[in-house]
Design goal:
- The chain has 13 helices and eleven strands.
- The longest helix is centred in the first third of the chain and has 30 residues.
- Helix content is 39%, strand content 13%.
- The N terminus is likely disordered.
- The strands form two sheets. The chain has a nine-stranded parallel β-sheet.
- By secondary structure, it is α/β, with parallel strands linked by helices.
- The chain has one domain: TIM Barrel, CATH 3.20.20.
- Helix 13 links the parallel strand 10 and strand 11.
């Protein structure tokens, strides 16, 4: 009898051991899920928990954005950021636009994208971008990433087969500033810019502002050669690109906006650059016409110097743009203009900035962005 009980006990112990081994084998992943994957952490330079936290965030509730523009160099300066936060106290400014890819094509932070790493189109200008965004968010600032798209000397130097070509020389085409352009008809260029936008969103930006989403406007125009333009109008190419961005970013936790020439609010043609405001209004959350009074020619609205008449110029542009968007069935976008905060054609005083804002507000402008290329701001509305 004792021998039988001993055998029974041994069998029971073996069963418990077997069940325990099976449990650990099958539950290993969940048991140790809290441990960080240090190899992946090193690759991403961010903890897995932080990555999961960012990917799970939701799009902010919409606000009326009133912001100013910063280059990546300004954004990289803690002194400049502290100045900005102090500067906007007691003002209505609630947003900042930061270059993540400017006219040079250089990406302003250390990107983890394979293509960027391979082509070495990234930089370390902004060393701690997620921390910067978090600091701004902590102060209630809405943070916008500005991404220059088709004007891209950096990408075209590394991938000349993706560039606008010069039909006369066979080499890269350059505009009058000496800058090369990526080919707007090349869908590999589209994908490259899409991946940068997605990465910027994953880092915490609230909105991606796409600039230079057009064909070149100056240079030896007759010598431009595109890979896939034949049989299509330029505005058709750009409309397809706008739709591409929308379809691929609509589920991301960020808004998207389009910078447009100021004249898009008034002109019904694409001005040979592919931009028609109705096309953009179908696919972006915000269209941002650059209605700088100094950029309108003498004689516009019968004004000898439009720069000296900010209210009249902005009011007319916004009225026309709003009418066109409102007349569009299934329009998605609100109109949020870029306004002039720099001296050109006239000295832009606080009163002149206020007149532009007044003109925009009176014509259904949903917020505004102030532009000064040197980031020298003397007035916060």
């Amino acid at each position: 009898m004792k021998k039988f009980l001993l055998i029974l006990i041994n069998i029971s112990l073996l069963a418990v051991i077997a069940i325990t081994i099976f449990y650990f084998a099958t539950q290993h992943t969940s048991i140790f899920a809290e441990r960080n994957n240090y190899a992946l952490n090193k690759t991403l330079n961010v903890s897995i928990r932080e990555v999961l936290k960012e990917t799970k965030r939701e799009k902010l509730a919409e606000i009326e954005v009133k912001g100013i523009y910063f280059t990546s160099y300004s954004a990289a300066s803690s002194k400049k950021i502290d100045w900005f936060l102090n500067f906007i106290k007691d003002s209505e400014i609630n947003a900042v636009v930061i270059d993540i890819k400017d006219y040079s094509g250089k990406i302003s932070y250390t990107s983890q994208l394979e293509m960027v790493r391979q082509l070495e189109t990234g930089s370390k200008t902004i060393k701690n971008l997620p921390e910067l965004i978090e600091k701004l968010h902590d102060q209630g600032i809405y943070v916008i990433a500005r991404q220059t798209v088709f004007q891209d000397p950096e990408l075209t130097a590394k991938k000349p087969e993706w560039a606008v070509k010069n039909s006369a020389t066979g080499g890269l085409w350059h505009d009058y500033k000496g800058l090369a352009w990526a080919d707007p008809t090349n869908k590999q260029v589209w994908q490259y810019n899409l991946e940068i936008a997605k990465e910027a969103i994953s880092l915490g930006f609230d909105e991606i502002n796409f600039d230079y989403i057009r064909f070149p406007s100056d240079g030896p125009m007759k010598q431009m050669k595109f890979a896939n333009l034949e049989g299509r109008a330029k505005h058709e190419v750009m409309k397809n690109f706008f739709e591409y961005l929308h379809e691929n970013l609509k589920d991301e936790p960020a808004y998207i906006s389009a910078d447009l020439f100021g004249f898009t609010t008034e002109r019904i043609d694409d001005m040979n650059i592919g931009q028609i405001i109705e096309d953009a209004a179908l696919y972006f959350d915000y269209v941002c016409p650059m209605v700088y009074p100094s950029h309108y020619p003498s004689g516009h609205l019968n004004l000898k110097n439009p720069a000296a008449h900010p209210y009249e110029v902005v009011s007319h542009a916004m009225k026309k743009g709003t009418e066109r968007i409102n007349a569009l069935e299934n329009a998605k976008a609100k109109i949020r203009p870029w306004l002039q905060a720099f001296d050109m054609g006239a000295v832009y005083t606080p009163a002149m900035i206020d007149l532009q804002i007044k003109a925009s507000n009176e014509n259904s402008g949903f917020g505004y962005l102030l532009w000064n290329a040197r980031n020298v701001y003397n007035y916060a509305p």
